[in-house]
Protein: Glutamyl-tRNA(Gln) amidotransferase subunit A, mitochondrial
Amino acid sequence: SATTSKTARLLEKITSAQAKYNIFTSIRKTDQLRDVGTTTAAIKDNICTIEEPTTSASGILKNYISPFEATVVTKMKQFGTTIVGKTNLDEFGMGSANTNSIFGTTYNPLFPNEKRIPGGSSGGSAAAVAAGVVDYAIGTDTGGSVRVPGAFCGVYGLKPSYGRISRWGVLAYAQSLDTVGVLAKDLDLLEKVYYKLDGYDIKDPTSLSPEYRKQITKLQETHKDKENLRIGIPEEFILDLLSDKVKSGLIQSLIKLLEAGHEIVPISIPNIRYAIYVYFTIASSEASSNLARYDGIRYGVRSSEDINNYAKTRTEGFGKIVQDRLILGNYNLSSDSFEKNFLKAIQVRNELRVQFNKVFKFPNVFNSSREVGDIDFILSPTTTSTAPLAEDFENQTIPEGYAMDILAAPASLAGLPALSVPWYVDDDIPIGLQIVSQYGNDAQLFTAARLLR
Ligand code: GLN
Structure:
């Protein structure tokens, strides 16, 4: 019958993509894929489902099965998506290449003949979309983890405003930065899925409240985009680090926008310069607190030698990168460093928010002074280059690896919505262009992305 052949085709795609690119941490059983719905999707394995383990690609949660499912997962089922499985990631979302996983590296389907990274940490989700296995995939973005893999795999990658999509059932990495995002090849589908998932959730204490949602909707009604937009290019984003291809792509896109009658305006957001340092200070600190719950008592794996304390469990369960981050985070929160590093980072982050508020035409509902600027949206590349070879990435130093998020982290720190859009320069390997809007104004990302099509 038609259904069975649909299932067979889907299974065939999953199996062959898995063999080539190592995309999934678990794949649903054939009988769970019997009735293929209107859309198919994959879910990053740091989001709770009840059908299979939720591992976060960590030894400490190997075989852990959640007793409940995340709000996003329930919503996806409600609107008729067939979930095919869970996708690979960097352990607990810590990484930019998807090389840091107990399941091994995921490879980038844009390069079937080379071993290139898909970007991280939602590398499996981006690869599942890029390989054509699913219509869309869910990822999480704390400091670039949906946008960076979106850019490297040539698909749209959306990080919504902080608090718009529920985090209930999403394993916390850095709770003041974590967002749930969506990856897709098709912009219209991405937009549809976003609107289905966007909504207040009483179970998530950081969910954007119905009152603020109403205020934003009202502002959106009075701030309809004009014919001629003012597009801001922060000078802090024009880095020597940008590859020639990324530079050409950015310039081509600016010419297209100019030719369509829009204005390109150089702007300055000085604290973008410090964003990457501030990001890693805050993210590691929050992680050291969030990951304290993995003690072998309440969740997941427990070391057989762990009799009197849980240090053994944590030493065996966490990978090296996670351990480094936890040590860094604990240090940042210690009396030696709290004021000097952690509070300083919070202060620079707050200033960054104020600087963004001064730029956008659209007001920030959380900014009581309602000070605004005259820019409609911000444009930059998403990453400084296209996807590196896995071996080149492995040979990088830790700070070089951190620098992968240099263009993505600012929007995360300010909680702003951002979308990575594929842009083709001269061959079939696109770069990612990043659109950033004011807090709450996620809708504008889609209209802005259409200007680039
Ligand atoms: N690469 C960044 C990190 O390792 C961002 C990851 C993410 O957004 N989850 O923290």
The chain has one domain: 1-453. Residues 63 and 128 are 22 Å apart (CA to CA). The two ends are 38 Å apart (CA to CA).
